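Protocol step 4 of 6: structure prediction from sequence.
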Amino acid sequence: MMYKTVAVVLIAVFTVLLMINYAPGTAEDEEETGHLYSTTRILMDTTVTISVLSSGEDEARASIEKAFEKIQYVDNLMNNYENSSELSLLNEQGTLNNTNPDLIYVINKSKYYSESSQGAFDISIFPILELWKSKFSPGGTYEAPTEEEINETLELVDYSSIRIEDSNITLDKEGMMLTLGGVAKGYAVDLAIRSLRDDGVEAGFVNAGGDGKYIGHKQVGVPWKVGLQNPDRTEEAIVVMEMEDMAVATSGNYERYFNDAAKVSHISDPRTGYPSQDLISVTVITESAMDADAFATAVFVMGEDDGLEMVERLDGVECLIITSDKRLIRSGGFAEYESI
């Protein structure tokens, strides 16, 4: 399945969120905090790692398993390429009754992201994504859609035409389709973290393809450290962030391509139907992984000035922007999370 949006991008740079262990634990640390137990699986079309600090392996493994069940649950519900998912049924039928409350919550929250970003984030962008994908898939023209094709398809992109009444959802325009690619992974991370907390886990993290949330400390008094890979030197981190009970997500033109030759990436502007190419990446730190996921995508689409202005208006949200000329632009409070 695809959980990200589509764009044509020609920049061959790579940036990625990495867990970087800058402060190896000692035997004494492990006695105080427990052992770090980790499991990695492929879910939601990405690599998901769940790690917990615990003094008991059986308890840790059981908690990790429950957290993975939450991620699988979100995948089953919100995968728009899985015919049996509620999201796929909504796209096919244009309406859905007795909808799962989690799906209603995520769609409602997505409308908030759209309003906050002046439409730069819009889950109804799916028809545009499918248009671009069809051009750069086997049998396609391997050329950008025409202006006429884009304008015609854009008629279906309108988050305000998603109507929610009680437990019923209706797409008011025939042919509208939704994708939760900009929020589903983040929401899955939030649910997995909630599951760990409910099991009594006080320290650990869930990282789904760069969307991560980190709770507690890795060692006594030492927060988790997350590195953002340097676009020029992939063995180095351009920034190291200290995470404690916070989430971080990165969006950029480096993550994924539908076709290597065409360099079809994953982020388009739902207001224009064309690729967003002004930035290399956007990293957002906030309390919720879903918020970080959505706002990272929104800022990437909005660009340096409008994106930064939006972040500065939001409470508890910080960002780091890497521009196409490789300048680092920080929001007002981002430095507070940087490791010295």
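Step 5 (inspection) to follow. The domain at 7-56+201-257+270-337 is CATH 3.10.520.10 (T-fold).
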